[in-house]
Design goal:
The structure holds two protein chains of two kinds. Chain A is α/β, with parallel strands linked by helices. Chain A has helices at residues 14-29, 58-68, 86-94, 118-130, 155-186; strands at 2-7, 34-39, 72-78, 104-111, 134-135, 140-143. In chain A, 37% of the residues are buried. The chains are: A alpha/beta, B alpha/beta. Chains A and B meet through helix 5 of A and helix 8 and helix 9 of B.
Chain lengths: 188, 351
């Protein structure tokens, strides 16, 4: 199972802090899973110009191919201007319309305000559903006060992230089994 | 229809196309050499002609896993190796070529073949060739429209005066040699969406519509949009031929056909497109109302005749060889086409 942690912004440190923690849980509880961290702050990703993802080179090519090869993707993202960051939207624009077919996608949000709670529900989930993702419906919403000096200080957030990781892995295994059983029935 | 060398009294035409892909056989992991692949394609055209197939075309793709970048050269070899089958491109990327050179090449192929050449002009589904050949992909749309227009003009007029953005102007230019009958059929390649088809319709140009999977009814909308746009553009749709092109595979049974074909499509698409073909969608290819022409010869005959009834098209073009399909399987398909499928289609569609 290949799981990619996608940290969706180049701004700030909270999303990366939560992503490091999440991938830490993953490594501890599911050492057999192959995990890759894609922090968009570490890559120079160009804007989508409409080409097939295989035709991008450099960082853009690496990021898109890594996502396309994943079985599951854990997206962590802040909320900016009551919306998802442009860096994250660009990732969706770079890959094909059915890019998340046969992939499980789960989410955590790092927001400066609880007023943003419905942004992922109204803006992010429809994109993921359109791109054919199997969604882990419950996302983890983390606020500014849950962090202190690049650490998560709210135990409840820690437990919720643990459940998110568990749900991601369990759903990926389940959907893979269901698909494989169904495909075996086709017998071709 | 005569202008496009289509004789309705003989029934719907049955053609074969190859993209010129050069992919490993997923069952063995082995890939034949480019030399073998090019010769295989020429042999494929010869066998298609022997089976009674009306049309054979070769694509132009400038990327990994393809072998017919110089598709006009391959077509001229086919012109020499065959006697009566129509030959064309599927498609020629006119956006990144000089229309004058393309026209010269194809009219020469027309002369070599004794009047059998046609051009299918497309926009390319991938953009790597823009870098390779020195064009700016931001002009994707306009490069195609301008050059396609010029190509049509070269076909209509022997002495050409023309001005454009992407090529030096032509002043009283004579583009030679001329095809056997003075002009050739030129088609516009369409990806299957109504918006794309309408562009061909407005210009009053024959449409070559490619399709992967899905219901026949969905593609009927595209064909309707094409004919409606043609009417709006002042053209008579009854004089404009429509060709449809997609996956084809005949075997003893539907199950065998799906089994033989699926790994080639799925693995081939992964390598060339970055995503495979979902099994669930492919399984639906068995449905009589699905556009994929797979199954037993009888099932395929019924599908094609149903499509003909719905579309009223003049030519169906089969893609069999994608994804490193072993040549023996291609040979078997041609045998079934020649002995069972073609005779039935001709019988029921001849007027």
């Amino acid at each position: 199972m290949k799981i990619v942690g996608l940290s969706g912004s180049r701004v700030g440190s909270k999303t990366r802090t939560a992503m490091d923690y999440t991938l830490g849980i993953l490594a501890a509880k599911y050492p057999e899973a192959e995990t890759v961290l894609l922090d968009l702050a570490d890559y120079d990703v160009q804007f989508s110009d409409g080409r097939n993802y295989l035709e991008y080179e450099g960082d853009t090519g690496y990021v898109t191919r890594t996502l396309m090869e994943a079985d599951a993707i854990i997206i962590g993202t802040p909320i900016f201007q009551a919306s998802i960051p442009a860096t994250l939207k660009n990732i969706f624009d770079l890959i094909p319309v059915n890019a998340f077919r046969d992939k499980v996608v789960s989410l955590f949000i790092t927001a400066g305000s609880s007023k943003h709670y419905l942004i992922p529900e109204l803006q992010l989930k429809p994109i993921l559903a359109y791109m054919k993702a199997q969604l882990v419906q419950t996302f983890v919403f983390i606020e500014e006060q849950d962090f202190y000096r690049k650490e998560i200080v709210n135990d409840d957030v820690r437990l919720r992230l643990e459940r998110l990781v568990e749900d991601t892995v369990v759903l990926t295994e389940t959907f893979t089994q269901i698909r494989e059983a169904k495909e075996a029935e086709y017998d071709f | 229809m005569e202008k496009y060398r289509i004789d309705k009294s003989k029934g719907m035409e049955f053609g074969i196309y190859t993209l010129g892909d050069h992919l490993p056989n997923p069952l063995t992991g082995e890939r034949i050499s480019a030399k073998e692949r090019v010769h295989e394609i020429i042999e494929y055209a010869k066998l298609a002609e022997q089976a009674g197939v009306d049309f054979f075309s070769v694509g132009e793709s400038h990327q990994d896993y393809f072998a017919t970048q110089a598709h006009t050269v391959v077509l001229s070899a086919i012109a020499q190796a065959t006697e009566k089958i129509k030959i064309a491109s599927s498609s020629t990327i006119i956006s990144t070529s000089d229309p004058v050179r393309v026209y010269e090449d194809f009219s020469t192929i027309d002369l070599i073949s004794g009047g059998r050449a046609e051009i299918v002009a497309g926009r390319a589904s991938r953009v790597g060739l823009f870098d390779l050949l020195g064009y700016d992909v931001r002009n994707y749309e306009e490069l195609f429209e301008e050059k396609f227009e010029l190509l049509l003009k070269l076909n209509e007029e022997e002495v050409v005066n023309w001005n454009g953005e992407f090529r030096a102007p032509l002043r009283d230019a004579r583009v030679l040699p001329r095809p056997v009958t003075g002009s050739m059929p030129i088609w516009r390649a369409v990806g299957g969406t109504p918006a794309s088809a309408m562009k061909a319709g407005y210009a009053g140009v024959p449409m070559f519509m490619a399709h992967l999977g899905g219901s026949t009814a969905v593609f009927k909308r595209t064909i309707d949009a094409y004919r409606q746009a043609a009417r709006a553009g002042g053209h008579d749709p009854a004089k404009l031929p429509v060709a449809t092109a997609g996956f084809f595979y005949a075997a003893d049974s539907m199950q065998q056909a799906l089994k033989d074909l699926y790994p080639h499509i799925n693995e081939g698409m992964k390598l060339t497109n970055g995503q495979g073909f979902p099994k669930q969608l492919f399984a639906q290819g068995a449905d009589p109302q699905n556009i994929m022409n797979v199954g037993s010869p009888q099932q395929i005959i019924e599908k094609i005749l149903h499509q003909h009834e719905v579309f009223g098209h003049q030519r169906y073009i089969a893609q069999i060889d994608f994804g490193g399909m072993p040549f023996d399987n291609i040979r078997k398909n041609l045998e079934l086409i020649g002995t069972e499928i073609l005779p039935a289609i001709k019988k029921y569609t001849a007027k």
